[in-house]
Amino acid sequence: MLKGRLGLDSVKVPHADRAGCLYLARGALTARDGTLAFLQGDTTEADALSPGDYAIPLQTVSIILLGPGSTVSHDALRLLAHARTALAAVGEDGVRLYTAPPMIPDRSGLARLQARIWADDDLRIMTARRMYALRLGEILPHSDLNVLRGIEGARMKETYALWAQRIGINWRGRKYDRSNPNASDLPNQALNHAASAVEAAAAIAVTATATIPQLGFIHEDPGQSFVLDIADLYRDQITIPCAFKAAKQVREHPTENIERVTRRLTGRTLSDEKVIPAMIERIKALIEGRD
């Protein structure tokens, strides 16, 4: 009786063609006329929308980040599930993740191939070398992962220094105190926030391709090892320049919040440069052995 209700039969837009994240706060997310509607209530300076009633194109985003002061209807959740659009409850301005239902892809082919490659020592190190080649611009001859990590670490020191000089900030090296992250200087704080945003994008790409987050080729212990592998492929291109630009902006305007500035700048860059679709295609190429 409910077949085709609200147009659910036709919502099969692949994540490679979607825009990424959409942040909504202080409003009601409901279903209307086969799509989503968001009634924006009273706003703060952090909100992008003015009070009003908005149509939300659920098929063109990969995940909706629902901020404080918001509600969601049962019909809206059903639409999101059928469109394979994730919904996450987050803190102010997208900081902190409270919950997110899984997106369950239709196919397991890439995951099975990933597991096969990961379980073969030779194929695993070959894939790691290909990932380093994507970042460093050359295929290194070494087959020891620790040696590759050491080379990558030395190259990253040079990359940080070059980007700092290019953008015009004072860089004194990468320092991060996990117990007190706000004690770091502006560039290091910005790097933490930019890295979190890029990792979130990588998590969407990994989920959209139905690959296995735990089976990384460079990272090994974290539960999101493959997500970190993919995020690191964009450290030079996205994470570092966005972080250093944000640090420079906050240095010039000290009243601005470094976390908010960094996340918004990184979010715009992820959208403008279509990073999530690029991540999805890169994952497919890596697992399928294509250049």
What would you say this structure looks like, in words?
- By secondary structure, the chain is an alpha/beta fold.
- A hairpin with a 6-residue loop joins strand 7 and strand 8 (about 95-100).
- Residues about 1-10 have low confidence and may be disordered.
- The chain has a four-stranded mixed beta sheet, covered by helices on one side. A four-stranded mixed beta sheet has the order 4-3-2-6.
- The chain contains nine helices and eight strands.
- Helix 5 crosses helix 6, helix 5 (about 185-210) packs antiparallel against helix 7 and helix 5 (about 185-210) runs parallel beside helix 8 (about 260-270).
- It is flat and about 60 Å long.
What's the structural blueprint in terms of helices and strands?
Elements: E1 21-24, E2 27-32, E3 35-40, E4 52-56, E5 63-66, E6 71-72, H1 74-83, E7 86-90, E8 97-99, H2 109-119, H3 121-136, H4 145-167, H5 186-208, H6 225-232, H7 235-252, H8 258-272, H9 275-288
Parallel strand pairs: 1-5, 2-6, 5-7
Antiparallel strand pairs: 2-3, 3-4, 7-8
Helix pairs in contact: 3-4, 4-7, 5-6, 5-7, 5-8, 5-9, 7-8
State the gist of this model:
By secondary structure, the chain is α/β, with parallel strands linked by helices. The protein is 47% helix and 12% strand.
